[in-house]
Amino acid sequence: MGNIATQQTTSMEDYLEAVALLSEESKMVKVTEISKALGVTKPSVTAAMAKLSEAGLVVHEKYGRVGLTAEGERIAQDVYWRHRTLRQFLVDILKVDPGIAEEDACRMEHVLSQTTAERLAKFLEFVSNCPRGEPEWLKGFNYYFEHGKRDEELLARCQREGDGKG
């Protein structure tokens, strides 16, 4: 059995993620469904499933359906979690268009370390759970993004508070 668990390729992670998402409705998915979801040919999917099967990450019935093993499911869920975290950061914090954020997250999810993903998730959790709503610094960033300059009122307030006079 190969060691894809430690040496996954971007493509293999995409296949695992696709199988996981498609299998939410039924445990086993068709090669055709994977092909459509990823925009690749059925022979490409079949070849990838053979590699993933050899690595112990999927169960692939010949001319049949595909399902994830426990290890395949673990990897797929990790990739999808990184994807969702990145997408949320791009959309909610950086205000990237959701369509672009989806594409970027799909590319970035494969190179983001577990440590960075965990820190990013904690950052998002911290920002989204601010008891006073959207944090002032985020409002300031959004203003800066929209106008190309800082919000003078917010900047003055921050400076007064920083001087201990606020």
Q: In words, what does this structure look like?
A:
The chain is about 65% helix and about 5% strand. With about 170 residues, the protein is mainly alpha-helical. It has a 3-stranded antiparallel β-sheet. Helix 2 packs across helix 3, helix 4 packs across helix 5 and helix 4 packs across helix 6. It starts with 9 loop residues before the first helix and ends with a helix.
Backbone shape? elongated
Output the number of helix runs: 8
Structure summary, number of beta strands: 3
Question: Mean of residue pLDDT?
Answer: 88
- Provide the spatial order of strands within the biggest beta sheet: 1-3-2
What is the CA–CA distance across the termini?
65 Å
Strand content: 5-15%
* Helix-and-strand structural type: mainly alpha
Helix-strand pattern, N to C?
A: HEHHEEHHHHH
Largest sheet: 3 strands, antiparallel
Uncertain ranges? 1-7
Radius of gyration: 21 Å
**Helical fraction:** 55-70%
Secondary structure layout plus pairing:
Layout: H1 10-22, E1 29-30, H2 31-38, H3 42-54, E2 58-60, E3 65-68, H4 70-93, H5 98-108, H6 114-128, H7 136-147, H8 152-162
Antiparallel strand pairs: 1-3, 2-3
Helix pairs in contact: 1-2, 1-4, 2-3, 4-5, 4-6
Task: Summarize this entry quickly.
This protein has 166 residues and is mainly alpha-helical. It is 64% helix and 5% strand. The protein is built from eight helices and three strands.
Question: Could you list some keywords that capture this structure?
Answer:
mainly alpha; disordered N terminus; 3-stranded antiparallel sheet; 3 strands; 166 residues; 5% strand
